[in-house]
Amino acid sequence: MQLINDFSVLDKILQDYKVQIGEDFIGYRNHLYRMLNFANCLGRLGSFDLEKMMIAAAFHDIGIWTKSTVDYIEPSVHEARHWLHSSEYFADEQEILDMISLHHKVRQVKDHPSPLVELFRRADLVDFSLGLITFGVPSDFIKTVKQVYPNAGFHKCLMRLSWRQFKSQPINPLPMMKW
Fold first, then answer.
1. What's the rounded Cα separation, in Å, for the pair 92 and 127?
2. Got the DSSP string for 116-141?
3. Rounded CA gap, 22 and 73, in Å?
4. pLDDT digits (tens, 9 = 90+) for 50-78
């Protein structure tokens, strides 16, 4: 499997959030690059599907920084919807928003009209789990992707935010998760 390095749509979107993301920018961008490479490995994406995945990826966790919250799914969907309404991808809005809103679903996304929704969930989980969950992505490919796009503190950022959430709301430590 060959690495994808051209994520121009993603990079264009991220530039608008670079200041808000701040010191976490490289870590978040690398998370997205890893995730998209894992998605391509899992699904052999064509250019049209890859563009939709890049849009969903750019926004899927953005609410962490735009609203300073671990309960970031709805703020992330809101940001994506706003962007989609001003772009040529408006026709694919529901599919892209579903990729974002269901990416932390614990169980498999079944019976969705778009296979990209489950593919997106799996690709995110491969990266979130640091490659412990693979869904069939070869371990040597995971290792290569992680070397080319290092973590750069992304998982530490998630731990820091999760700890803050746990301290403030111990009964609801992971509000972004869905069954």
1. 25
2. HHHHHHHHHHHHHTTTSS-TT--HHH
3. 20
4. 999 999 999 999 998 998 887 889 999 99
Contact 77, 97 (CB under 8 A): yes
Global pTM value: 0.89
Domain ranges of the chain: 8-168
Q: Within a 13 Å sphere around the CA of 123, how many CA atoms are in the beta-carbon half?
A: 30
State phi, psi for 105 to the nearest 5 degrees: -70, 130
Q: Is 14 helix (H, G, I), strand (E, B) or coil?
A: helix
Three-class SS of 17-41: CHHHHHHHHHHHHHHHHHHHHHHHH
The CATH classification of domain 8-168, taken from the options 1.10.20, 1.10.3210, 1.10.10, 3.30.1360: 1.10.3210
